[in-house]
Each structure stands twice: as structure tokens, then as C-alpha cells.
Amino acid sequence: MPKLLDLIAKPNLLFALTFVLAGLVPAGQGHAQGYKVPGSPGEIRLSFAPVVKAAAPAVVNVYATRKVRQQNSLPSIFNDPFFRRFFDAPGLGAPRERVQNALGSGVIVDEQGLIVTNNHVIEGADEVRVVLADKREFAADIVLKEERADLAILRIKGNPGNLPHISFASSDSLEVGDLVLAIGNPFGVGQTVTSGIVSAVARTQANINDMGFFIQTDAAINPGNSGGALVDMDGRLVGINTAIFSRSGGSIGIGFAIPSEMVQLVVASAESGGKVQRPWFGGEVQAVTSEIASTLGFNRPVGVIVSRLSPGGPAEKSGLQVGDVIVAIDGREIVDPGSFKYRYITRGIGAVSELTVLRNGKQRKISIELAAAPETRPRDVRLIRAASPFAGVKIANLSPAVAEEIGLDGEENGVVIVDIARNSPAARAGFKPGDIVLNVNGVDIDSTSTLDDVASSGAHVWRLSVERDGRVLQQVFRG
Hints:
20% helix, seven-stranded antiparallel β-sheet, Pdz3 Domain, disordered N terminus, 479 residues, alpha+beta, 27 strands, Thrombin, subunit H, 4 domains
């Protein structure tokens, strides 16, 4: 009989003996014949294979291609018109078209071929194709893009039907220490499964997207895993892998996944044929710092404090007051503005939530209706074309609806930049989407028509006041 040290030196033999002793694999049978669905946490520790078999067929490779025009670079001598006369030729220095490829992962969530992936995987794509685990390949349409959450929904063309798909589990049920698997296509090597634990839940300081609420895991996630599945030990989807923290470009055990509660909200919007609508709070909240907690008599910083209310908004109608501290939504603890935003948004339009509020040292329950933000005035979207620092910007009149769409908190009036043409004068001037134009050459900008008129004035000096991230910037442009 072999000695224990001999078994330790032969890990495969020790692994097989462990299964025999556990009664999962009858002696003499191989892996393929002997596995069964785990019936207890103890059995799961022996192999993840049943979980992988249930989930992996629904994880696909996503290939996105985009065509870009690239300017041919020429030696500086050819910039001289004299030399161009002698060396000019068709195509010399002309832009040429180049194809860029992007690789990521995706997850099929219904048998008709609805796929969830990251928005950054397919951003700007002219063509998207998906390859299933069984090597079948399909073209796919982009159904919905949700840039703020970095999610996109694809639909396989041709409605093949009867496709492998994965069911959702509630990400709220996860606890730190739970086992999870990450499935995707890292570095394009092919479908790969890695295991780990939930390192943290409700991670709000990752600075990945404006939702700011993630599952953190130490399951290895690498480039190419974006859009892939994070699954629990029942083989159900608890998150979409989206980013890693890394100094080298490879996994160091700090990966982030978008929780399934957010993913389901975006999927439901795609299935209904609409866009993602977030409930409007109608106010602003701020973090409860240690200093604020001390003045309120708290033994630790917890919750968010209501700092502003919009007249007639859902928060004001519910009876909330400035200074109220919201410590929970529907029984889920609120620790900072990021967790408040996530909990509020993922409840969806039309729901009624119960807020747990501290006011004057006493706890009370307040019901709030989750309604869409109103468009209180026409957005009147315009593209500025006149020669000015604004040439190339697309602007809109602000309203609660527009502010909510572009992620501006507390901004409900004014004129906002919603898009900027690439390589335009506005792009070179440093404008950014979300900038609010306050004043141009002494004229207060109260509407898109006002800014359009001022930009067409033909001025040679431009003095601007622009609000960005709550700060007012003063800028001067000449020419």
C-alpha cells in the first residue's frame, strides 16, 4: 500500500482518492462518468466542474470591429508647397482606412440570443460577432448601450433559438467570502474559468463608472474577460466582470463586477424596447463624515444626509427635509452617496421604496415614489457650427430629465454640452460633455438659442464662464 508521502507526491492520485472516499466517484470510474450535481457545501469544495458545465455554455466571445481613418504621416519636407509640386501623387498623405478589432466576452441571458456585455467592448463598433463555447459563430446587433453603467445588450441575428443561457441570482445575497467563478476569454486564449471568493460587496470607491457600486473578487480577471460572467455556486449570474486594478495589466487579485441587480435593470429595458430610465430623487445627498456623525450623536459615520430638495420633486413630496439622514432603503443599509444612488436606481421606475430616516435623533419610515425625471422645458438640441471656441459642440437645455440622462446631480437649469465632435475647435479648446455654459462675453446663457446666437457673433476675443463638476472655470480664447 502506498505511503502517505507517495500520495502527496502524486497530486492527481490524491485528488482521485479524495473523490472515492467522499463517495462521489465510484472506484475505477473517470471524471466524466462519476460527477453529480453537488448537494452540499462540502461536496462543492471537491470540484467546480458541475457549476462550470451549467454556466460556461452561455458565455461567449465578443468580437467588435470598427473602421477608422488614419492620416498618413509624411516627412516635414513635404509640407513645403514647392516640394509637393514635384512629389505629389494620388493618395500621397491622404487618410487611409484601417480596421481596429476589440475582443471581450458576453453572457447569453435568454434562449433567443439576448447577450449582456460591457459597453467599452463594443463602443464605436461597425460590426459585432459572437462565438459560442461550441464554436458556433453569429452576427449580432447592438440593441441598447448604457454608457453610464458600462453595459451593452446585443441580440444574435437570425433568431436561432434554443441557445444555452444563464439565469440571474440576486447579487444582494452575496456575502464576503462566498465562492465565485469568473468565466471569459482572457487575452484571446479561449474560454477560461477562474475561481475565487467575493472580496468585498458594495465597493463604491472603484472610480470605474458613474454607478460606483461593484462586487470585488480575487478570481483572476484579465483583459478579454470584460463582459464575462461572475457566477455563484449554483451556476447563476451574480455579476458582469468589467475591470481590474492592476499595475502591470494582468490580474493581481483585485477585480470588479457589475452586480446582477443593475444588469437586470438594463436587460429589462432592452426587452421592453426602450432606453434605461433611472428614478429621479429630486434632490442631493452628501456623505456623513466623522465630524458630521459626531455632531448628530452617531457613534460612527453612516447613511447620507439630504442637502438639497427640488421643489415638487419626489423627495420633497415624500416629506423628506434638508438635514434628514437616510440610513437604509427597503431595509438595505446605506453607507455613502454611491450606495444610496445604486439602491435607489435599481428599484426601477414605478416602484415605491421605504426610506429609513433619522430626524432629530428619532428614526422614522418614509415612503417615496420612484418616478422618471420630468422634462420641464424642451431640450432644443443644437450643433454649434459658427467659427468660435464652441464649433463642434452639441448643446441642450437642461431639465431634470436631461441632467439625469447625462449624470449631472443637482443641475436642472442652464445649457449643457452633451457631445463634442472629434478634432473640432471645441475639442481642442478642452470642453467636455457635461460642461454647463454660464456666460459668454458678458451674456448670461439661459437657452441653446442664446448660445447659438452668441457663438455666431464673430467676436475675436471670447471670455467664458463654464461650470464643471461643481466648479466655475473662467477661460479666455482669442482668434
